[in-house]
Amino acid sequence: GEYSHRVDMKGGDELSRLADEFNELTGRLQTTEEVRRRFVSDASHELKTPLASIRLLADSILQSEHMDSQTAREFVSDIGEEAERLTRITEKLLTLTRLDTARPVQTGPVDVAAVVERVEHMLSPLARAVEVALELHLQPGCLVRATEDDLYQVAFNLMENAVKYNLPGGTVWVYLTGEAHRVVLRVEDSGVGIPEEDLPKIFDRFYRVDKARSRAAGGTGLGLSIVWDTVRQHGGSITVHRREPEGTCFQVCFPRWQEEGGEGT
Ligand code: ADP
């Protein structure tokens, strides 16, 4: 056909270059398709587990003829907890879907320190309950181009994890520094840490180092994927490394909002 004729005319080098490009593209499509399929299958699995528990609890109540009301109440309360879990998972799945569809990122300078302080305010009851200290070292005047809600989500997920995966008597340090062209937010904790071999997978959807611990803390394994997608959507980057002698350090960089004449100068 015309297509092969055209490729022939361009000679062997061109042909093999095109073939390479074609193969590379097919490979990438397959990977995307595979990632998508795995996501759907993982999501179904995550939703099935609480549903199965609800089913089992309901059946136990219905089938036992002489269940005392105290036990029945406990079962119903468990059902409520599983339902809450389902709500958390579906809310986060919706957030991820929203992030998947390219949308114009709202412009507007957001003051990162103010957002972090709001997160601290929200987290302080939890931190007190588990005896973890929150220490903020925030440079004022760090503005980024973002939506406030998205930035809040990022700071909240990182700081909540730093509290959740900590130990009694532990500390969470949040550092905010402004550089010439970027704003750096660092969330460090003295907690349980993440094994070196798990670090590359930590941003994957549903990935959890310790499923039992995450579950007990109400986790879904989606928080860090949301952080990752959000940071990328705002033109930022995120890295994670083990902290010496213990704990974890997450570092997020956002392009800095430049006063007068917009950005990128
Ligand atoms: P989850 O809802 O389970 O907290 P995330 O996506 O927020 O899900 O985090 C994924 C996993 O990464 C967690 O289950 C936990 O094992 C690990 N993790 C995240 N943050 C920390 C941290 N600061 N210290 C230790 N482990 C962490």
Automatic annotation (TrEMBL):
Catalytic activity: ATP + protein L-histidine = ADP + protein N-phospho-L-histidine
The UniProt record lists the keyword Chloroplast: no
Molecular functions (GO terms): kinase activity
Domain Histidine kinase: 42-258
Keywords tagged on the record: Kinase, Membrane, Phosphoprotein, Transferase, Transmembrane, Transmembrane helix, Two-component regulatory system
Chief location category: membrane
Top EC group: transferase
Organism: Flavonifractor hominis
Name used for this protein in its record: histidine kinase
Keyword Cytoplasm: no
Start and end residues of each HAMP domain: 1-34
Subcellular location: Membrane
